[in-house]
Design brief:
The protein has 9 helices and 10 strands. The protein has 339 residues and is of the alpha/beta class. The protein folds into 2 domains: 4-116 and 299-316, Nucleotidyltransferase, domain 5 (2-Layer Sandwich); 126-294, Nucleotidyltransferase, domain 5 (2-Layer Sandwich), CATH 3.30.420.40. The relative contact order is 0.18.
Length: 339
């Protein structure tokens, strides 16, 4: 009998549903919440209410697009955490009810683990062991991946994530939220002429709080001298900020590869859609002799396809959960339970 999994992703502000059959993603549907643009960031209560409105239509769309019947579904997977607890509750509650109605088992998935396993949604797939730089709005991690379900965090941010640095910078520049794609766009027309400091944190950990502060003070100083500074230098500011964030990420990744002697290297997460990061990884890989892996755009941002892929490997191992499962805002990738 075929393994057909319905997967639900609702960790932040994107409501997503996917159907996977025997390891192949048949559909991967996402409903975005544009309402947060006016607030310059995700408002948790607004996000959870929007999930309630979107989840049934998105699941229906995913099932129809996959060309299956509900009765064929053999398991229901969902994001348990980490994420916004109100958003997670919507996805977990729906998954429980749907699985109960069909009489099929449930599979809980760690959102960050799923970002890494997005690489197994399509070819080419990395070989084990490999390193994965997972970069999103809420997380920045270097993960050692020994097997599909055996991962260890080698380094992570001690304060803010790289994606947050992009978004907060965008807010200072008056760009729409989320700002990452806009900074990427304007940076292509500019040059990295402004030198922002690189944080001094040991080993493989990251820090972006100080970088955000330095950008704030830099802009305040320049605007005091020239009120039109941002307008006149937007492209170069974006290029300079992006160049520094990417250089921080790649420097740590190179250090991790050197320490572990691993040449299979991947990136994942929403920020992996950034063109400068993708290009720099490929260039660095050629220089270092790495085999590099970058997910297609649909598997970079929050999506249920990656949840389905992760659930597939857990299904094969018989790792199911009961109706007493609850979402968790914090969920450690390398110990398998809430922290």
């Amino acid at each position: 009998m075929s393994i057909i999994i319905l997967a639900i992703e609702s960790s932040c502000d994107d409501t997503s549903a996917a159907i996977l059959k025997d390891g192949v993603v048949l559909s991967n549907c996402v409903a975005n919440q544009t309402i947060h643009e006016q607030y310059g960031g995700v408002v948790p209560e607004v996000a959870s209410r929007a999930h309630q409105e979107n989840i049934i239509p998105v699941v229906d769309q995913a099932i129809k697009k996959a060309g299956i019947n509900r009765s064929e579904i053999t398991a229901v997977a969902f994001t348990r955490g980490p994420g916004l607890i109100g958003s997670l509750i919507v996805g977990v509650s729906f998954a429980k009810a749907f699985a109960l109605s069909l009489g099929v088992p449930m599979i809980e998935v760690n959102h960050m683990q799923a970002h890494v396993l997005a690489h197994f949604a399509e070819d080419p797939k990395p070989s084990f062991p490999f390193l994965c730089l997972t970069v999103s709005g809420g997380h920045t991690q270097i993960v050692l991946v020994r097997d599909h379900l055996d991962m260890e965090i080698l380094g992570e941010t001690i304060d803010d994530a790289a994606g947050e640095a992009f978004d907060k910078t965008g807010k200072l520049l008056g760009l729409p939220y989320p700002a990452g794609p806009y900074i990427d766009k304007y940076a292509k027309e500019g040059e990295a002429v402004f030198d922002f400091p690189e944080p001094n944190v040991g080993e493989l950990n990251f820090s972006f709080s100080g970088l955000k502060t330095s950008i704030l003070y830099f802009l305040k100083k320049q605007l005091a001298e020239n009120p039109d500074f941002i307008q006149e230098n937007l492209n170069n500011i974006c290029a300079s900020v992006q160049d520094r964030i990417v250089s921080i990420l790649i420097k740590k990744l190179k250090r991790a590869a050197k320490q572990t002697k691993i040449t299979e290297v991947a990136i994942a997460g929403g920020v992996s859609a950034n063109s400068a990061l993708r290009n720099t990884l490929q260039k660095t890989g050629e220089e270092m002799g790495w085999n590099t892996y970058i997910p297609s755009f649909q598997f970079c941002t929050d999506n249920a396809g990656m949840i389905a892929v992760t659930a597939y490997y857990k299904y094969l191992r018989g790792e199911f959960v009961g109706q007493d499962v609850a979402p968790v805002a914090r969920y450690a990738i390398n110990i398998g339970h809430e922290s």
